[in-house]
Amino acid sequence: DQLDTLYRQVIMDHYKNPRNKGELQDGDTLKINMNNPTCGDRIQLQMKVEDGKIAEAKFIGEGCSISLSSASMMTQAIKGLDVDEALQMSDIFSKMMLGEEVDDSKFDLGDIEALQGVSKFPARIKCATLAWKAMEQGLSDGEDEDDDD
Ligand code: FES
Ligand code: FES
Asked: Nearest-CA neighbor of 133 among 64, 17, 37?
């Protein structure tokens, strides 16, 4: 239907004109590599966290249109958010991938909503969540830094 067509256009636009594709040059950058074992596609997410906020986010990598457009949308959405907020947004995205109704009152999901339909294609959910998993891993690693083990 029309909404599907619109969503497909949004996805293709992010795939063809990825936002935040590239590398951060500063030393103080989190780098997280994540691959999709099903297909071997991989991305590296780079984030700079300053005063508990995500000051910068970029990615490089190879993958399908879903994985790269999701990375593009995700980096766009988390910039400027607190670490907690970014992790909450990741929870919302996971729910979306389970086909659940999501509460978008807290965040403006913007282009991310275009990925809703992916929940109907289980094989592609891993594509869509690749960048989000990288983000979660990077941000939770940071929180664990004070652990003694
Ligand atoms: Fe098959 Fe992504 S792993 S479509
Ligand atoms: Fe590999 Fe989508 S087919 S990430």
From this structure: 37
